[in-house]
Amino acid sequence: MARSLPKPSNKAARIPLEGIHSLVYSAAPGGSSGKLFGPVYGKVQQEFVDQEIFINSVQLGPLKIALQAKRKIMNDTSIKVTFLKSSVSVFGNNVVEKELAETSGGVWKYLFCDTITDVDGTKKLLRIMETPSLFVIEQPLSDS
Fold this sequence. Notes:
Layout: E1 19-26, E2 35-37, E3 40-41, E4 43-48, E5 53-60, E6 63-75, E7 78-90, E8 93-99, E9 105-117, E10 123-130, E11 134-140
Antiparallel strand pairs: 1-4, 1-11, 2-3, 4-5, 5-6, 6-7, 7-8, 7-9, 9-10, 10-11
């Protein structure tokens, strides 16, 4: 029996994003899912600098691999993502930084984006996107 995904939230791509969001699940085979090598996985996060620029990163101990990107809202459920530069840092010191081609990136489609309440009562912003791989990303929300 085929599993159906939630329908896109109304204007999901237009929801303002800020702060740090953590990866819950990814169907991507490589580094964007946190897989660094063999069975070794790092912690994956998205940090929103502003409404246009964000940083995808994978961290394992003192090692951090980051990808700076720009997002442009295309319509209510899709954004165009352009990767700007990649960097590798150790203990917070950049070791390598590389500008990326303007053609890198693609269109990311929101399948779901809404506030949910977790089983422990924590409110979270939950985003499910197709990039084309499936990504589930959450951000705990404060009650203030």
